[in-house]
Amino acid sequence: MGSQLKNIAAPDFKEVIGLLHKKTTIWPYLLIAPALIVILAVVFVPAVNAILMSFQSYDLRRPSQIGFIGLENYMEVFQDSLFWSSLVRTALWVIFGVGFQFIFGFILALLLNRKFKGRGIARSISLIPWVTPGVLIGLMWRWIYDGSYGVLNDILLRLHLIQDKIPYLAQESTSFPSVVVTIIWQGIPFFALMLMAGLQGVPNELYEAADIDGANKLQQLFRVTIPSIKNTIYVTTLLRIIWVANSVDVIFNMTGGGPAYSSQTLSVYIFNKANSLNLGYSSAMSILLTLLLLLVAVPYLKNMFKNQEA
Asked: What are the backbone dihedrals phi and psi of residue 278, each rounded to the nearest 5 degrees, phi first?
């Protein structure tokens, strides 16, 4: 009788252990399942839908003509002069916007990393441009640049730097530089915050060793500081390149891409086309913009990982 009970109990115990093992294996996947579902619903499904629409004549103004047209949207995009001018302007928008954001953000990070009275307050105030919504930034700077009652014209007139009021956003020669200045102002705190976090991770022993070797402050900057936060610079710059290239809210609320398309970047052009309900054409341009950003991001990441291994 006892031996029979042992034979029955042993398999049951192993089965329980097996069930517990399966539960511990499945449990991590169950925890990340909600996040994966949200990503699929918000990112993956719309991306697939955009790819499918890019091969269709998908103009909601003419619903009866919706259908598969192959590569016609892409062929039309390559023949669109506005696409090419917007693409060139996007390159300038990213180069000047992100470039000056990094320069001024790095300077601000170096200043805020120093110990001084009221440093906490200064750090908090410096974040205001970054935490302000893009729509509000666009409206605020549109008022600053206003040709009739803008504060910028008032200051320049009082300083006798200009003779007449300038309609910055209403003329082609100044509209695009004006929105570039705005995006630079918005992005400086992001670089400052990220680079300051990297600076705080640089060991003081490296600076002490550099002092002993007789390195001055400039040499310490290029030989110690920048190499130590190199990975932070790589990641932060790549993120800003992607965000600035896809930015719509600032330009749309300041100029709408005008006057005469002089401040229209590719993302704004895509948005305007989608607003006109030509979803197939705008989807084709958005896919091309994504591919262009991948062409920038992949070599950038390869170089970063290569430097990490070195």
From this structure: -90, 75
**Cβ-contact 86, 228 below 8 angstroms:** no
Q: 90 with 247: CB under 8 angstroms?
A: no
Position 122, amino acid: A
Phi, psi of 282 (to 5 degrees): -65, -35
**How many C-beta atoms lie closer than 10 Å to residue 73's C-beta?**
23
- What is the chain's percent helix, strand, coil content, to nearest 5? 75, 0, 20
In order of 7, 24, 73, the CA distances from 12 in angstroms are 9, 19, 64
The 10s digit of each residue's pLDDT in 109-125 is 999 988 888 888 988 89
Diameter of the chain measured on Cα atoms: 110
- The one-letter amino acid code at 192 reads A
pTM of the model: 0.84
Cα distance between residue 305 and residue 31, in whole Å = 30
Q: How far is CA 277 from CA 60, 63, 280, in A?
A: 5, 10, 9
Provide DSSP, 137-195. HHHHHHHHH-TTT-HHHHHHHHTTS-SS---TTTSHHHHHHHHHHHHHHHHHHHHHHHH
Cβ neighbors of 244 (< 8 A, separation 6 or more) are 93, 94, 97, 98, 101, 183, 187
CB 250, CB 130: distance < 8 Å: no
